[in-house]
Design brief:
The chain is an alpha+beta fold. It has a single domain, classed as Jelly Rolls. Helices cover 17% and strands 32% of the residues. It is built from three helices and 13 strands. The strands form three sheets. A seven-stranded antiparallel β-sheet has the order 2-5-8-12-11-10-9, with helices on one face. A four-stranded mixed β-sheet has the order 3-4-6-7. Strand 6, helix 2 and strand 7 form a beta-alpha-beta unit. Keywords: Signal. It comes from Candidatus Uhrbacteria bacterium GW2011_GWC1_41_20. This is Lipoprotein.
Length: 179
């Protein structure tokens, strides 16, 4: 009788642990801090112009950014009046950008990348202060391989903000459940 009860509890326990559902408009969902937004990839030349379109599964790449305004990324010059008219309100400093790219499943994550666990990898591009960091680019790229085998690459650029919060956001990525 006790054995039967244990079996029933074990069977019931398996039913109680339904797979978690991750909701989102894109392929990945993130725990974004207050003020952060997800927008379609938007770099046009040196001008970062966020699209007014919503993020959806038809968009292949997205931007996670710490501000909800246009980000002017051109080094060494301020925007012209014409550019300002197109952009509206913009920022030139105190921002973080995470560019998230869906990459081909056949692409191999470089073997030098550090395995962070749970499908995440961190690849060092160059030493601190070297050329790969021009314009605020972080000297590491991140990769995520989902349980389904889908692959993503993350590239961070900051100006006046720490890379730490960007890394936390990347590591919060979960693949969205499709039905």
């Amino acid at each position: 009788m006790i054995l039967g009860l244990c079996a029933l509890v074990l069977l019931g326990g398996g039913c109680a642990m339904a797979p978690s559902v991750v909701e989102g408009n894109w392929y990945l969902a993130f725990d974004l801090p207050s003020g952060w937004v997800m927008v379609p990839d938007y770099t046009v030349g040196n001008v970062a112009l966020p699209s007014q379109e919503d993020v959806n599964r038809e968009v292949s790449d997205v931007i996670l950014q710490s501000v909800d305004k246009t980000i002017w990324t051109s080094l060494g010059r301020a925007p012209s009046e014409e550019e300002t008219a197109i952009m509206g309100e913009y920022v030139m400093e105190d921002y973080s950008i995470i560019r998230v790219l869906r990459i081909d499943t056949r692409r191999v994550v470089p073997s030098e990348a550090e395995d962070l666990g749970n499908g995440f990898y961190k690849l060092k591009l160059c030493e601190d202060g070297e050329d790969c960091q021009i314009g605020g680019r972080y000297n590491y790229d991140y990769y995520f391989i989902s349980d389904a085998g889908n692959k993503y690459q993350f590239m961070i650029t900051t100006n006046g903000q720490s890379y730490d919060s960007a890394e936390e956001i990347i590591l919060s990525a979960q693949e969205v459940t499709t039905q």
